[in-house]
Amino acid sequence: MALQIRKATRRKAKLRLALLGPSGSGKTMSAIKLAAGIGGKIGVIDTENGSADLYAEIADYDVITLEKPYSVTKYREAISAFEQAGYATIIVDSLTHAWSGAGGLLDKQGQMAAKPGANSYTAWREITPEHNSLVEALLASPCHIIATMRVKTEYVMETNERGKQVPRKVGMQPVQRDGMEYEFTVALDIDANHKAQASKDRTTMFEGFYDTITEATGRQLLNWLDRGDEAPAAPPAPLVEAPLPLIGPDAKEYTFKGVEAWQKAALKAVGMMSNDAAALGMWQEENRAHFTAVAERHALHVDAVEQQIDMHLSRAASELMDQEKEAAQ
User: Fold this and answer.
1) Cα–Cα distance between 6 and 33 in angstroms, integer?
2) How far apart are CA 291 and CA 301, in angstroms?
3) Rounded mean pLDDT of 249-273?
4) Per-residue pLDDT for 213 more than 90?
5) Closest CA to 66 of 77, 58, 55
6) CA distance from start to end of the chain
7) What's the pLDDT at 135?
8) 46: which residues sit within 8 A by CB, 6+ positions away?
9) Which of 33, 148, 264, 323 counts the most CB atoms within 10 A of its CB?
C-alpha cells in the first residue's frame, strides 16, 4: 500500500492514564473519582482482594473480581466484557498483578525457564508476546482506561567521598515491565499524602500540579479529550491470542499459535503414553498449570484431552485390578 501524507488534525481521544503509588496512597479512590468526573458507566477490574468495593459510596460502578492466577488472558477477557457491555471507563486495579502476581508474567517466565532444556532467554521469547497483547488490549480499547500500578523504591550504588559504595535513592519504580508507564498518555505519581504529580503528561494539564485527585480532575481531562474532530472509525482489531503452552513427552516446553494445533499435539502425546499409566499420569501433572491456563479460553478442547487421559488411566487401573484378582486365586 502506498504511503499517504496528510495534514495533522487534532482529534477527540480516549483517556489512557496510569496512577502509580505505594500501598495506601489512594490509587483506587483516585481512579474512581477520575472516572466519576469523566461520566458514564464505570467498570473496575479488581485484583486487590475486593478493595474496589470499599468506595461504593462515592460513585456508582460495577466490578469484575480477578483471582489468581493473574493471567493476561483473564485481564483481556475482563476488558472485553466491559467493552461489550458499553462501559465508558475501565479501571484496571491493579495492573501490577499481571506482572508480579501469582500466575502473572514473571511467575510464568520463571516456571518456563526452570524446565529442562529451557533458559531465561527462551522463556522471555514466549512471555513478551503475552505482555504485548495486554498492552494492545489497553491501548486499542474504545473505552477510557485508568490503570493503577504499585511502586517500589529504586536505588543505585554510588561511591561516596570515603571511596565506599553506598546506595542512593533515585525514585519510585512501577512494579511492572520496564517502561510500561510510558505507554499511557498521562502517568501520575501519588505519594503517601494522597497528592499526585505528573511523571508523564501529553495533555500539559498537569504542569506544576501537586494536589489530590477529585472528580473535577476527571471533568478537566474529559474537556481536553473531547477537543477536536471525531476520530475516524477504526476496524475491529483482530484478537491476538497468546501462545498456548504444552510440555511434551520429551519434557520440553512447546508453544502453539492455535488451539487446534495445541489439542492435536496433546492428543498425540496421550496416545504415545497410552500404555504407560505412570508416565501418562506424571505428564498430566506436569501440564496441570498449562491445562488450566488454556482452559480459560478453550475449555472444551482441554476437556477432550483430559477425557482421553482419564480413559487410559481408568483402563490401566482396571487391568491392574484384574491382574491382582488373578494373582490372588
Assistant:
1) 38
2) 10
3) 89
4) yes
5) 77
6) 80
7) 93
8) 52, 53, 63, 64, 65, 66, 93
9) 148
For 49-81, the pLDDT digits (tens) are 888 999 999 999 999 999 999 999 999 999 999
- The DSSP H or E segment spanning 76 is helix 72-84
**Among candidates 137, 144, 135, which has minimal Cα distance to 35?**
144
According to DSSP, residue 59 is labeled S
Cα distances from 309 to residues 101, 274, 282, 315, in angstroms, run 31, 8, 11, 10
The neighbour count for residue 193, using CB atoms within 10 Å, is 10
Length of the chain: 329
Query: Cα dist. 290→73, 106, 296 in Å?
Result: 13, 15, 10
Higher pLDDT, 303 or 206: 206
Whether cis (ω within 30° of 0) applies to the bond prior to 23 is no
The grid coordinates listed for 303 are 476437556
Q: Is 165 helix (H, G, I), strand (E, B) or coil?
A: strand
Burial class (CB in 10 A: 0-12, 13-18, 19+), 253: buried
99: nearest Cα among 134, 64, 140:
134
Mean pLDDT of 17-41: 95
Joined together, the cell numbers standing for residue 202 give: 501529553
* Neighbouring residues of 56: CB distance < 8 A, sequence distance ≥ 6: none
User: Which part of the chain is CATH 3.40.50.300?
Assistant: 16-225
The CA-atom distances, in angstroms, between 220 and each of 29, 30, 70, 202, 227 are: 18, 14, 33, 14, 11
In this structure, are strands 89-93 and 144-159 parallel, antiparallel, or unpaired? Answer: parallel
Chain-centroid distance, C-alpha 5: 36
Q: Specify the fold of 16-225.
A: Rossmann fold (3.40.50)
Residue 170: pLDDT over 60? no
For residue 161, report the phi and psi dihedrals to the nearest 5 degrees: -65, -15
CA distances from 182 to 132, 159, 201, 218 (A): 14, 31, 10, 20
Pair 66, 47: CB distance under 8 Å: yes
Instruction: Kindly tell me the sign of the dihedral angle through the C-alpha atoms of 85, 91, 94, 95.
Output: positive
Q: Which residues pair with 45 in a beta bridge?
A: 64, 92
